[in-house]
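Thread: "does anyone have the structure for this chain?"

Original post by V.I.:
We have the sequence but no experimental structure in hand. Need at least a predicted one for the grant figures.
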Amino acid sequence: MAQKPSIPKGTRDFSPVEMAKRNYIFDTIKSVFLLYGFQQIETPAMENLSTLMGKYGEEGDKLLFKILNSGDFLKSAPDDLLASKDYIHLITKVSEKGLRYDLTVPFARYVVQHRNDLQMPFKRYQIQPVWRADRPQRGRYREFYQCDADVVGSDSLFNEVELVSMIDEVFKRFGINVVIKLNNRKVLSGIAEMIGAPEKIVDITVAIDKIDKIGLDNVNAELLEKGLSQEAIETLRPLLTLSGTNEEKFATLEKLLASSQVGMKGVEELRFVLEHASALNLKSEVEVDVSLARGLNYYTGTIVEVKAIDVEMGSISGGGRYDNLTGVFGMDGLSGVGVSFGADRIFDVLNSLDLYPSGTVASTKVIFINFGDREAGACLRLMSQLRENGISCELYPEPSKMKKQMNYANAKGIPFVAMVGESELESGTISIKNMSSGEQGNYTIDEALTMLK
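Reply from O.Q.:
Generated one for you, tokens below.
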């Protein structure tokens, strides 16, 4: 019995219609990246595990897809590790490579490896797939695309302001109403100091990053499990549910963090970014959110997260500043800040809200009806002229019944149908039907070019 075809959970096939929509997303984001002066690079799908491990925290390491070494991958595995099933230590013996978890760590590796060829500050964008061994659910996939833009080699907070502006421009073009949430890792460090647990900053950020998913009570339970005292958790609670205007939040933070130098520095940086972004007349709402942590270990300053307002969905974009990421690759002192757009979640949001522009899915603008060999030959010559002028067209390959050919045009969403029969051959014209309006007329090739453009 033949095996039933399937794909791994958390991955998807995309039809031509879906790919047309996805390309609209990629092209829109790419056009904004270019508008803001970013240049494109690409990195391999797989990286050395030594590049990836330890960059995303303990939970991130668990979600890395590891690739078994070629050939007899067990030949270097000690018998005692195999017998004890000690997979944590065994993995380094049987796997040297892994699929990239995000685009930022490979980018940091790229910067260090090619530093002599780069002009600083270096502004790069990258649109490629990433892989995470996560539990698949709506809006969360094991294989998905990220669209990243980063600036390295500059400490200026104006980079953060530009990124906020760029985020706003992307979602304005998509027609998606979003809220851009801002926080600062230094604020979180100040809060950890204030509750007497500065050494628990990673545990705190990993836990509070889950507030939207598991709720405050479960976050508190996790913090208790990680060793925070009940008193520290109670002190933390009002900060994680901070409400009011951005100015009111700043006032509260400045009061609570007055004794923390690092905390006040974070508030100062937050205020700078927010004030300059607010002066740009952005369409999107920009909100200070102290519970925003994005539990990745490498963020050191500004943290950004974007959520759609009109549809229930997780973060559809996010990023932040990482002052020390390239240090692990031997290049200290290089600051960077970046943002990543989740193309797959944006795809789901645009589908939910039906926000694709008309004509997005139509790859062919004109289809020529096939009446037979003589007529089809004439159509091919006319199609060459259309294509030279940038008009996409195709010829139905067989001289099938008219109904079948018209059904094909409808199914593909082709907006114009062209017919060259005996009378058109004699008059040197093309009969063109607008499939939306139903209007039909005869045109010379020059008139057809003008009309179709």
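V.I.: this helps a lot. The radius of gyration is 28 Å.
O.Q.: and The chain has two domains: 16-64+101-353, 366-452.
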